[in-house]
Amino acid sequence: MLEKTIKQVLVTEDEISEKSREIGRILTEEYNDKNPLMVAILKGSVPFFAELTKRIDTHIEMDFMVVSSYHGGTSSSGEVKMVKDLDTSVEGRDIIIVEDIIDTGRTLLYLKQLLLHRKANSVKIVTLVDKPEGRVVEIEADYVGFSLPNEFLVGFGLDYDEHFRNLPYICILKEEIYQDKD
Ligand code: PRP
User: Is position 103 annotated as part of the catalytic site?
Assistant: First the structure.
């Protein structure tokens, strides 16, 4: 049913699964015996967080934050707002932030600075998608699943007006879907 709204699949389900295994293997080695706190930034990171964490074969803990920078539609407002904070203290902890996408970089710059200010021992960033052309502040992820062109992407957590997060792949929608909504 959702398939008829899709123009092009950019990253398949198998590619996401393989990449998650690859990053999972790296994190397993890097964080062995460190018990890192893995932080999912809701809502978009949920599918990737689930896919990635099951590929990490050492002790981790999980926590969740909600920050918001897009308010519906297809462009960023520029304002980052904390909606739900962590339950866990980050002081002295090794933190791995897990995101679905870095675009302008504002969200991750804000989060990284916040966690370092709270005296985290280290803060690394894993993102499923990087859109380097969208960057307006200086921040890079430590691990990137897929570097993609500056198009409006949906699927595997990425939404258009809260829809399409449940698609099992990353894709571009047909133009008429955006026209109907705007
Ligand atoms: C998206 C995404 C990142 C942020 C990236 O979140 O999950 O957190 O935007 O954009 P930036 O690099 O331009 O800051 P959004 O605020 O849309 O919330 P969501 O995860 O609930 O979709």
Answer: yes
